[in-house]
């Protein structure tokens, strides 16, 4: 459905008459489901439970909640305000926000687009693995050695380097995922992305609930739940625990790298922003807690079957948890094949709904820069991403490249993006009052000075600490025993690509200028005067 305001300039939608009609969600429910689909991804299932266990158990929920309220939700609102007020892809929105210095701000948007481009290339590979393991669950194909099966028979992992030795078991599902993703993108916002999420999110919730209920009735489930929720209060004195909480919230909510900004730009002009934002944030956190219950109840069963203490279990997060530990558990439980299909099916669905939101950031930017249709953008963006994805991640070195690229993209690129956005938008361009006004003019839940302090002071300070600490660690200690040259190429090389891509994207000429634009609703006389002075 398109936003079709009458051809007057400026229109209440914030468009001039010369601009093409902008796509929009069919309604609030469609937007909420799509945003939840973006937020609920692989990290909710395979990252949160292990992070909570390793950082104080039940006590971790305190810094987690603090991080949600002081950084997660405030930055989410900031993304919504920028995207909805300036009604464009990340580059267009930042350019419009920057006024006469908008070209400098536009580069922030292209940096976020580049982040999403990189993430899409390897995120698809993990979804392909999940689809393969969904099929493998039927006959427990990994046998008695899930670790050896994953790294040997399935991924055929080689030495660090660049290999063109393709692995058919990965290549085929990877191509299938890309074909489906491109088809969804080509359908547009309402007929593609929204329609998929309306089906996928209820299916994900029902399927995962079934998995959790089954896990709760396994022998030893209570041991796993005790391990997860028993509070270790002394952990609250450890700064690393608080950093872990902010990190989990930050990466889980899909904030600060263009996704929620782009999604909010498709909302109709008279849309409640903060109310749905709260629903999305707490829905995401609720799913993380649900995932923790299901995963740790299952791990408790595994410890019981092995006759070992829970603290002796290994591979409790990430790829190790999903593709090494869980297959071993599935092999030992009654009705294991069904449980495995539920788990890997949930992993694939959660990953796919996040993937299409990531791709939409890139597609929207290309659509607007080149003034082409969603279908054309989907073919170009999806085609280029798919080729790179296949070349890098369906080979014998795919797992190693994925691990390194993911670490640098998220821990350096995404965190830096959030810091720059907060500083540039709120301190350099001083748009805090305007964005506060925009949120409050349209929303039921009002924001004020507290929100500004969180997004302009608390979040940048915490994230800067995270970034500096992580960069020092990567420089001094390296990463995962990888050779220095490999980290230079796939790690720091990835970060260099983000910077260069941002510059190139900014220098390319717009087919239709995004500057002929007036935000809506209009500012009060006082705020308008302040904005004019700054511009």
What does the model show?
This protein is mostly helical. 73% of the residues lie in helices and 1% in strands. The chain has 21 helices and 2 strands. Helix 4 (61-86) packs across helix 18 (432-442) and helix 17 packs across helix 20. Residues 1-19 have low confidence and may be disordered.
Question: Could you give the topology of this structure?
Answer:
Elements: E1 2-3, E2 22-23, H1 28-39, H2 42-46, H3 48-54, H4 61-86, H5 90-97, H6 102-139, H7 146-154, H8 168-186, H9 188-216, H10 221-229, H11 239-252, H12 259-265, H13 274-306, H14 318-332, H15 336-370, H16 374-393, H17 398-428, H18 432-442, H19 449-477, H20 484-507, H21 525-534
Strand order of the largest sheet: 1-2
What is the CATH C level class, in words?
Mainly Alpha
* Shape descriptor: globular
Number of domain modules: 1
* Percentage beta strand: under 5%
Could you give the distance between the termini? 34 Å
Number of helices: 21
**Poorly predicted sequence stretches spanning 5 or more consecutive residues:** 1-19
Strand count, sense and barrel status of the largest sheet are: 2 strands, antiparallel
SS class: mainly alpha
Number of E-state strands: 2
Quaternary structure type: single chain
Q: What sequence of helices (H) and strands (E) makes up the elements?
A: EEHHHHHHHHHHHHHHHHHHHHH
Calculate Rg over CA atoms: 23 Å
**Helix proportion of residues, in percent?**
over 70%
Mean pLDDT: 93
CATH fold-level assignment: Amino acid/polyamine transporter I
Q: Indicate the CATH architecture.
A: Up-down Bundle
């Amino acid at each position: 459905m398109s936003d079709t305001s009458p051809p007057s300039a400026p229109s209440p939608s914030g468009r001039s008459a010369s601009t093409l009609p902008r796509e929009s969600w069919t309604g609030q429910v469609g937007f909420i489901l799509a945003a939840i689909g973006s937020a609920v991804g692989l990290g909710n299932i395979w990252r949160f439970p292990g992070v909570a266990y390793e950082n104080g158990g039940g006590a971790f929920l305190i810094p987690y909640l603090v991080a949600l309220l002081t950084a997660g939700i405030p930055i989410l609102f900031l993304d919504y305000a920028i995207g909805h007020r300036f009604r464009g892809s990340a580059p267009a929105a930042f350019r419009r926000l920057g006024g006469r210095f908008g070209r400098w701000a536009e580069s922030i948007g292209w940096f976020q687009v580049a982040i999403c481009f990189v993430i899409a290339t390897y995120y698809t590979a993990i979804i392909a693995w999940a689809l393969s393991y969904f099929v493998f669950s039927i006959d427990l194909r990994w046998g008695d050695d899930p670790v050896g099966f994953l790294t040997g028979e399935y991924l055929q992992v080689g030495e660090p380097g660049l290999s063109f030795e393709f692995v058919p078991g990965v290549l085929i599902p990877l191509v299938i995922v890309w074909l489906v993703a491109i088809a969804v993108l080509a359908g547009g916002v309402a007929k593609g992305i929204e329609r998929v999420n309306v089906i996928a999110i209820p299916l994900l919730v029902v399927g995962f609930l079934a998995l959790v209920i089954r896990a709760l009735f396994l022998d030893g489930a209570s041991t796993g739940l005790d391990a997860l929720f028993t509070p270790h209060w002394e952990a609250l004195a450890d700064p690393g625990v608080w950093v872990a909480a902010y990190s989990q919230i930050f990466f889980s909510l899909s904030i600060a790298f263009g996704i929620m900004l782009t999604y909010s730009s498709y909302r109709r002009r008279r849309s409640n922003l903060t109310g749905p934002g709260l629903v999305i944030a707490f829905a995401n956190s609720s799913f993380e807690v649900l995932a923790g219950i299901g995963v740790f109840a299952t791990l408790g069963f595994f410890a019981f079957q092995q006759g070992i203490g829970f603290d002796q279990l290994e591979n409790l997060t990430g790829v190790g948890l999903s593709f090494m530990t869980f297959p071993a558990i599935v092999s030992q439980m009654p009705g294991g094949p069904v449980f495995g299909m539920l788990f890997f099916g949930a992993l694939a669905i959660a990953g796919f709904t996040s993937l299409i939101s990531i791709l939409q950031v890139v597609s929207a930017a290309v659509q607007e820069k080149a003034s082409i249709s969603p279908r054309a953008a989907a073919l170009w963006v999806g085609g280029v991403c798919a080729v790179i994805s296949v070349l890098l991640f369906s080979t014998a070195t795919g797992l190693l490249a994925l691990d390194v690229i993911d670490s640098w993209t998220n821990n350096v690129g995404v965190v830096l993006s959030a810091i720059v956005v907060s500083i540039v938008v709120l301190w350099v361009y001083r748009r805090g009052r305007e964005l506060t006004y925009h949120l409050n003019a349209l929303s039921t839940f009002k924001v004020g000075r507290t929100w500004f302090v969180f997004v302009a002071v608390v979040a940048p300070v915490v994230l800067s600490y995270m970034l500096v600490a992580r960069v020092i660690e990567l420089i001094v200690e390296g990463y995962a025993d990888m050779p220095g040259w490999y980290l230079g190429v796939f790690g720091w090389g990835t970060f260099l690509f983000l910077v260069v891509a941002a510059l190139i994207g900014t220098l390319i000429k717009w087919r239709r200028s995004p500057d002929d634009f007036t935000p809506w609703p209009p500012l009060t006389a006082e705020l308008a005067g302040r904005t004019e002075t700054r511009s």
